[in-house]
Amino acid sequence: MDIPxxxxxxxxxxxxxxRLAKEGKRxxxxxxxxxxxxxxxxxxxxxxxxxxxxxxxxxxxxxGIKLEVGEPYPDSPEExxxxxxxxxxxxxxxxxxxxxxxxxxxxxxxxxxRGIRESKYIQLDKxxxxxxxxxxxxxxxxxxxxxxGNLFDACSLAASAALQKAVIPNERYGFGDNExxxxxxxxxxxxFVKYEDFIVVDPNLDEEQIAQARFTVAxxxxxxxxxxxxGLKGSFTIEEIKNNIKRAQIHAQKIxxxxxx
Amino acid sequence: xxxKDGIRMDGxxxxxxxxxxxxxxxxxxADGSCYxxxxxxxxxxxxxxxxxxxxxxxxxPTKAIVNARYNMASFSVEExxxxxxxxxxxxxxxxxxxxxxxxxxxxxFPRTTIDVCIxxxxxxxGTRCAGITAAxxxxxxAGIPMRDLxxxxxxxxxxxxxxxxxxxxxxxxxxxxxxVAIAPRNxxxxxxxxxxxxxxxxxxxxxxxxxxxxxxxxKLQRKALLNKYKTxxxx
Lengths: 261, 235
Description:
The structure holds two protein chains of two kinds. Chain A is α+β, with helices and mostly antiparallel strands. Chain A has five helices and twelve strands. Chain A has helices at 11-22, 103-118, 151-164, 205-210, 238-260, and strands at 38-42, 50-56, 59-70, 81-87, 128-130, 134-146, 167-168, 179-180, 188-195, 198-201, 213-219, 225-231. In chain A, a hairpin with a 2-residue loop joins strand 9 and strand 10 (198-201). In chain A, helix 2 packs across helix 3 (151-164). Residues 1-6 of chain A have low confidence and may be disordered. Chain B is an alpha+beta fold. Helix content of chain B is 28%, strand content 31%. In chain B, a hairpin with a 2-residue loop joins strand 1 and strand 2. In chain B, helix 1 (87-101) packs across helix 2 (127-141) and helix 2 (127-141) runs parallel beside helix 4 (200-229). Chain B is globular, with a radius of gyration of 18 Å. Chain B starts with a strand and ends in a 6-residue tail after the last helix. Classes of the chains: A alpha+beta, B alpha+beta.
């Protein structure tokens, strides 16, 4: 029997956040355009071809990269392939349940995937071993460890950081020495939520739980748009969406600096 | 050749553990948590509960259900593992739940579950022992009443010699593996598995060694817990 997911937010908390929002304040004292502290650590998993642990405030995710030899897709016989999945294990939150990925986890993985794929961050054309026969398949696995809101940006950042220093495991397959995974410049994702007509970047869990609408945009190094996703049941005005993108362009530049450090 | 002149391939003596690092209370959302590195193993454990058991029909009106879930991250092994439980992890989850349940005062929390999540993030032989050891610290961090702090360690046999805490090469090439979990105060056996080939005499020797290993690891568990909670002392 499936238990419907209940998002329990107490009336007191909801009122409190609404009252703060009217004054332009957030529950943890941040301004509407303030990220929580971001921390990136690379190469934390020995068995993975690349890895990164990212913390945004109390949210913590781990991205691991594995490469396998496989067959190319028929429509791109000379290109490698990539596949992104996200696990929301019950370790990370009292609300997460074991079992196959639920729609939330699938949406998360697909949004991260689109940012990387559309910005051509992984040079898939350099991952061909034998045209039409053998190519490298890059698996990006996102493992959430502590969920306190904004998994979209944390996972996207972890994936970008992990890919940045990943290697092609030639040795394991007897193809010679390992070499760096060919990548260009990473996409940077920015997420906003809207509650009480207040739009904030990098929502924490409380804000996410009362959010009416969510918006994620992935930007390349020129600030051009490579992927977007509007989520949840509420709506944004056209002006709000445009404004979100402009706000994201400023945030993305700062976050990109952290990736380049 | 796995052992030469009493020295193993990674330079350890037969009765020597790999380096171990334990940290308690590392996660924000979990009621209790532990991060553990044991050789090349990296384990994150979290405890939630006691909380209402759902759906209701699984509730036990006399006690809490202890529900451990051992899960390997897909990138934790050489060949990418498909996410989700397989037969191996299902078995490990079962024996781990049973081992932990035997020390927990479950009768204090009827109709609840105590969920223990063990995530293997990087794997290098001995993950089930590392998982139980981390889970025990997470349980203590969550304030779950227990009659002892369980701890686990394996012994095995390589080139005819009984050794402590097999490395991944020794596990693959060796002759036997004997993971053991105990309640260290009175040396009760909470978990025991074995595969390979041991004579009765070798088994006695391996069990003694595993218990000795457990007791050494137990000291590190206590140190990790003291480390976390000493900062709460009133000065």
